[in-house]
Amino acid sequence: MAKIPVVMPTYSRTDIVFERGEGCWLFDTDGKRYLDFAAGVAVNALGHAHPHMVQALTEQAAKLWHCSNLYRVAGQEKLAARLVERTFADTAFFANSGAEAVECAIKMARKYHSATGHPEKYRIICCSGAFHGRTLATIAAGGQQKMLDGFGPAVEGFDHVPFGNLNELRAAIGPQTAAILVEPIQGEGGIHAATLDFLRGLRAAADEFGLLLMFDEVQCGVGRTGRLFAHEWADIAPDVMAVAKGLGGGFPVGACLANEKAAVGMTPGSHGSTYGGNPLAMAVANAVLDVLTEDGFLARVEAMGEKLGQGLDALKAAYPTVLAETRGMGLMRGLQCVPTVTPADFITKARAQGLLLVPAGDNVVRLLPPLIIGADEIDAALSILATVCRGIAEEQTA
Questions:
Q1: What Cα–Cα distance (Å) separates residue 45 from each residue in 11, 184, 189, 301?
Q2: Cα(221)–Cα(224) distance, rounded to whole angstroms?
Q3: Is 397 exposed, middle or buried (0-12, 13-18, 19+ CB in 10 A)?
Q4: What strand order describes the sheet that includes 332-337?
Q5: 321 Cβ neighbours under 8 A, 6+ residues apart
Q6: DSSP character for 231?
Q7: Residues of 3-40 as b/e, b for ≥16 C-beta within 10 angstroms?
Q8: How far apart are CA 329 and CA 185, in angstroms?
Q9: Cα 346 to Cα 352: distance, rounded to the nearest angstrom
Q10: What is the largest CA-CA distance in the chain?
Q11: Statement: the pTM of the whole predicted model exceeds 0.70
């Protein structure tokens, strides 16, 4: 009799089963209520059981689930047109996840240079501490050893430079360099936000050396910073962008957006996906975009992000033996714990008080609430965080 669990043990799971969700709250099978500042790791952009999303999904489910990309899909055409209208992009490819969206970007960078007469250009400059997904190519792009261990040899073609160091990035550009791939805000790596000057410098370097600039906005995009996409704060545009997570609000959706120049090699047969852009996913993603583009929605996200950030700054000032730094912007925030405090312990204590959080690298606790979060829920979360910090501080002096 096999001793391995029936669900492959690739996750360290908390012993909770959630039964239902409502707005910013989750309820477990014992009836306990939790304030959700994890949001499925920045996925549940509109919280749980949002009525507009539920309506869109159920109406589509009664009509058509899947027909394949052998035919036109009306929902794809609608969503692509809306994304093109609101972004730098001229075209969109739909997939099922962020990793697939990044894979498309990687392939597009190589195909672009091949199609324009420079097949020798295939290398992509990435940043240390990055996370771009868990496929063989995306773990190589991320470059984190803990993700690569046991899966060697690493896919070739990625060069890594320190995040935020424009001089080292420029020095890494060589005759085989095809593109730059960067997260405007590193999520898994510890909520490191690039400066606006760094983002502008990336655009200038890409233009100077004839490279594609590619942003991974899988986690920081879709309204999380108070703009539809985080790079918009720098008033620049990439050539390619990977999007997912919040785009489907909980339904698996990924998208690779590109301008016409970058997509020159993406001709019939060059790329594909069986399930990508299926009618169910497109109905939900269009419903998410309906809400995100309502007048005042993103301004409210920005305001709630400011409130949360100010509250976290006050916590850090009040508990310097527990918290070393606050990070992030909008509703993508991080609390870096001091070296003697682990995110796992902090998160466990918060969960016992009814608040769900997410760990990240660099000893950071992530706060990624739904974009519909309100002032009362933020106050409730800050109150729980204060209780946790106070308890840890008391343990330190006991």
A1: 23, 19, 21, 11
A2: 6
A3: exposed
A4: 323-329, 332-337, 364-367, 358-360
A5: 338, 393, 396
A6: G
A7: eeeeeeeeeeeeeeeeeebebbbbeeeeeeebbbbbbb
A8: 9
A9: 10
A10: 68
A11: yes
3-state secondary structure of 303: helix
Please, are residues 277 and 251 in contact by the beta-carbon 8 Å criterion? Answer: no
Per residue in 176-229, pLDDT tens?
999 999 999 999 999 999 999 999 999 999 999 999 999 999 999 999 999 999
Which distant-in-sequence residues (6+ apart) come within 8 Å of 179 by Cβ? 109, 124, 125, 206, 211, 212, 213, 214, 240
Other residues' Cβ atoms within 10 Å of the Cβ of residue 197:
11
Report the C-alpha dihedral over residues 209, 214, 220, 225, rounded to 10 degrees. Answer: 50
CB atoms within 10 A of CB 167: 10
What confidence score (pLDDT) does residue 286 get?
Answer: 98
* Helix residue ranges, H only, the chain: 39-42, 51-61, 74-86, 98-115, 136-142, 145-148, 166-172, 196-209, 279-292, 297-318, 343-352, 375-397
CA 390, CA 367: separation in Å to the nearest integer?
A: 19
Place of tokens 């590193």: 186
279-292 vs 51-61: helix axis angle to the nearest 10? 160
Q: Pick from 68, 98, 60, 94: which is nearest to 276 by CA? A: 94
In degrees rounded to 5, what are phi and psi of residue 331?
-105, 35
